[in-house]
Amino acid sequence: MTDTADRRLRPFDRRLLRRVRAVRRVLAVDIAAGLAGTVLLLAQATLLATAVSVVVEPRGHAVAGLLATLAAVVVIRAGLAWTVEVSGRRAATTVMSELRRDLVALRLRPEDGGGRDAPTHEGANSEIVMSAVQGVDGLETYLARYLPQVVLAVTVPVAVLVWSAAVDLTSTLVMLVTLPVVPLFMVLIGRSAAARARANWEALLALSAHFLDVVRGLPTLRAFNRGRAQVTRIAETTDAYRRTTMGTLRLAFLSGLVLDFAATLSTALVAVTLGVRLVGGTLGLRPALTVLLLVPELYAPVRALGTLFHASADGLAATERMLGALDAGDTPREPTAAQPRLLPLVPPAPPVSLRGVTVTFAARSRAALAGVDLEVGPGELVAVLGPSGAGKTTLARVVLGLTQPETGAVEIDGMSPVTCGLDAWRRRLAWLPQHPCLLTAPISDNISLGRPHAGRTEVAEAAKRAGAHEFICRLAQGYDTVVGAGGVRLSPGEQRRVGLARALLRGAPVLVLDEPTAHVDRETARAIAMTLDRLRGTCSTLVITHDSDVAAVADRVVHLEGGCIRTPASGAAAGVAR
Amino acid sequence: MIRRMCELAGLRPRRLLVPVALGTISVVAGAALVGIAGYLICRAAQQPPILSLTVAMVAVRALAFLRPGARYGERLAAHDLAFRCLGRLRTRVFSALEPLAPAGVESYRDGELLSRVVADVDSMQDLAVRVAVPAGTAAGAGLVLVAGVGAVFVPVGLVLGVGLVCAAVGPPLLAARVVTRTARRQAGLRAGLTSDLVEILDAAEEIWLNEADGRALARVEADDAALVDAALRDARGAGLADACGVAIAGITTVVALGVTSAAAAAGRLDALAVAPLTLVTLAAFEAVLPLAAAARAMPGLVTAAHRVLDLVDTRTGVVDPARPLDMPTAPEHRRAPQIRVRQPRVERRAGVRLLDEVSFDLEPHARVVIAGPSGSGKTTLAHVLVRFLERDGGEVRLDGHDVRAHRAEDVRRTVLLSAQVPHVFDSTVRENVVLAHPGASDSDILAALAHAQLGDWVEALPDGLDTRVGEGGRTLSGGERQRLALARSLLADSPVFIFDEPTAHLDATAAHALLDDLWGATEGRSVLLITHGDPGPFGGCVRVVTG
């Protein structure tokens, strides 16, 4: 939000225009409607002036016809207002919908998820999703109100000046006297945008953040009997902020004051000069009235634009956040080799090899992996041990194709992700991540995520092998129990076992397991180790673990420390602490 | 309900007077400006002596200054009022919330819900700026203008009155109906889409690896299509309300012109009055223009007000006794009581029972570990012990006296609860520790920090005790946060400490280190440690199992 201060009166974001077709359409509608609206405005003023002058200086004209035309103009203007509103809001909804779809599609392709290797803070996803869903409100203000007003702010003043010059040139010159106010307004609105940003975002946000902080900390305050003492603190803080904010608002509202004054002053000036000239008999009533009705319209659209500017600038922030997220993923990548039409047959347990793999994250100076060589033979079970931060998870991500090594290569059965394409690559892999995610769906669907057509017995079989069957059966609806954020919450250990069942059921030839026994009780951990033991030969497995039981069943244990492999040794000689 | 909300916020009619009066002046001055300018021109066209126009000319110039000035004043006065109301509302809500936290407020279990309520309180400032002041201005300016126009020519006064009422009621009502009808549906769809999106983005890599991306995308698209459909319906309704507003203003003006010109033709009205009356009629609609926006905001404000009032109306079950037993509260007299717990029972709504079979004694200076799976009521037990929550049965005694015989604050001076996630305020290290004992000296604070094994940490901080810890203690690790809470407790110097799952958010190594420090720092006090994990050095203590 801090960038609000830097924002200036900017008609539209080019990125938005480029990305979404709906915006181009709404822009076309707005321009057409703006032009039509301007013409109708001129027509209304002229008709009204004519009708009044006909009444005041009767010359036998019928007023009825004029009134009917005027009514028609009014109805068309109302219809135009409806069109602009609906088209703008339709566009806002469609744009947000397209942006959301692009965002999800982008995030679901790791090869395009540029820059995501750097760990993002927790909750970053919910922030971007909040923008993606709630942001439509801001975009509505922008597309349905601000953008049409931009068009009017250009067409109406020009049309008013041209038309009144045609009717009465002298009055137009009087109007032009007040015109220098507009640049002054621009300067003020630029200033007030910054001032208002300070007022609204810093003061108001800080104020409500302070209140939220105190409310959240209430249990702690009460434990120390300090709750009631905060009441006066809140009153004082709010009042102090009110005073500083009002100081800034006094400045922020100046731009409105200046434009209002320009509008009323030009009306008064024009009226007085017209009066003098009418008395002198150098001007007719009808042109005089027409000009008088047009004067206030000279500044009205710009004034309205100023009001909408702040609202739409704040509203656009959400859209800009999303565009930023999408642009980050749009950095062009080197094209991967043409994907082979026929995927090579993969043996049931192919060898996996890493050669000289180095990975460095931009945020850190030290390499996460420094020249790692590792072989997992066909059907072999290799355990990776090491302290936290040693690069174990990065190693797993390289094998999975989720992190591209800077140098070195990873191959399954002699093929690298580059030669066969990530789409084919992922088909050979099953993965238990460090934090397996459960989707809001029945537990059976969660297990069969990687194999959607698996039958109930296969699902149960996988759950049994992962040590999950028993607790699932204890749930009220068994395998039909909805889990995830919108359902029953499982403990970390239970989530892990569901994740393991998911990886096992996928039936991929290469299995990558990140701490399969973390948060799991001793007995279940032993059962899981037995399951891994039985996997030998059916698939090639890389397991990251701290668990001595798991390490004990491995064919080989490798130690990873500071991004390097220390002592490759066989399971028996590894000296795992028991 | 809105009335109660206004009461709570101190939004009284008297306080609305200044902004509404200024708003009325602004609208009336605007209408008068064009009206008088119209009269001036029509009269001038009759080529009278120029001196006869002086009054109108002066009036036009004066109004040109009055209108923008009044409008500027109105905006400032309205915002000032909104801030004042917000301040009042905040203290009132906080005072209501204070005796409830944390046990009596459901929302404390869900941090997001709490932020929601706080946002609801904040949204009430719209009640002044967007609803009350515009509504007052519409009424004030409407009445003045109808009266003024009616004084010149009654039929046009009637026409304007009817037109204004239509514009003030019709479009806003339509807008409000559209909002209420679609808002709930849209809110539901949005919530569904939001949670689906978060879930899918969080699991993006796992979904991709399992080749489930197509299915995930289809789910988002289905959610999205429903939302777009609902939004479009909303847009059509809202657009209709706007269009009606434009049409009513225009048609009323045309009718006013028709009525005046017919009357002028029939000689019942001076032809000079036609222009001013018509122009004032057109300008008068500025008064009711903001009402549609107010109406659109109303349903949301009503829902927010409901949530806030629900919270304010929650009653706590904890009542201090009429004649409380004395308890030594001065630090030098405080001593650890013998705490006796016998099957305390807490009943929740719908007959859910918590805590049935827990019984133990905490002797002075002893340490007891309460173990049990999550959801077995360990935290509830702690809340009962410090009187955040009233029990429904069983026994809890301090030195043989029912804990309910004491004032709740006295009990908390003796028994100090350190919550599972102790709150770290967005302030300095000093402020965060000193709240336990206002007025404590820096050396006391530093001693407490050192005792909690944060001595080196605070020395390494750039500004020492004055270092800000960031929102929610963002800059602290889980272990540092718990140690900061420990330092607080040590500074408060209560004889009995309760630690509720201090290691819940720490990894095994950090958890062990913390428990070692807790063990060392609480020497000589009674300690109740609640945990479901490895109790570390507390392993040798009496162990009570719940659930």
Oligomer: heterodimer
The largest β sheet of chain B comes out as: 5 strands, antiparallel
Helix-strand pattern of chain B, N to C? Answer: HHHHHHHHHHEEEEHEEHEHHHHEHEE
pLDDT averaged over residues of chain A: 78
Helical residue percent of chain B? 55-70%
The CATH topology of the largest domain in chain A turns out to be ABC transporter transmembrane region fold
> Care to count the β-strands of chain A?
12
Average pLDDT of chain B, to the nearest integer? 84
* CATH architecture assignment of the largest domain in chain A: Up-down Bundle
Q: Which word captures the global form of chain B?
A: elongated
Model regions low in confidence, pLDDT < 50 over at least 5 residues of chain B = none
N/C terminus separation of chain A: 53 Å
Shape of chain A: elongated
User: CATH superfamily of the largest domain in chain A, called what?
Assistant: ABC transporter type 1, transmembrane domain
Largest interface: A-B, 132 and 135 residues
- Uncertain stretches of chain A: 1-9, 112-122, 331-342, 569-578
**How many E strands of chain B?**
10
Summarize the biggest pleated sheet of chain A: 7 strands, mixed
Summarize this, please?
The complex is a heterodimer of chains A (578) and B (547). Chain A has 578 residues and is of the alpha/beta class. Chain A has helices spanning 14-19, 21-56, 63-107, 124-167, 169-177, 181-216, 218-223, 229-252, 254-279, 285-329, 392-400, 417-420, 422-427, 443-447, 456-465, 469-474, 492-506, 522-535, 548-553, and strands spanning 352-359, 369-376, 381-385, 407-412, 429-432, 441-442, 482-483, 510-514, 540-544, 556-561, 564-565, 569-570.
Ordered list of secondary-structure elements with their pairings:
The complex is a heterodimer of chains A (578) and B (547).
Chain A: H1 14-19, H2 21-56, H3 63-107, H4 124-167, H5 169-177, H6 181-216, H7 218-223, H8 229-252, H9 254-279, H10 285-329, E1 352-359, E2 369-376, E3 381-385, H11 392-400, E4 407-412, H12 417-420, H13 422-427, E5 429-432, E6 441-442, H14 443-447, H15 456-465, H16 469-474, E7 482-483, H17 492-506, E8 510-514, H18 522-535, E9 540-544, H19 548-553, E10 556-561, E11 564-565, E12 569-570
Parallel strand pairs in A: 3-9, 3-10, 5-8, 8-9
Antiparallel strand pairs in A: 1-2, 1-4, 6-7, 10-11, 10-12
Chain B: H1 2-9, H2 13-45, H3 54-97, H4 111-123, H5 125-152, H6 154-202, H7 204-209, H8 213-265, H9 274-284, H10 291-313, E1 339-347, E2 353-354, E3 359-362, E4 367-371, H11 378-385, E5 393-398, E6 401-402, H12 408-414, E7 415-418, H13 429-434, H14 442-451, H15 455-460, H16 478-492, E8 496-500, H17 508-521, E9 526-531, E10 542-545
Parallel strand pairs in B: 4-9, 4-10, 7-8, 8-9
Antiparallel strand pairs in B: 1-2, 1-3, 1-5, 5-6
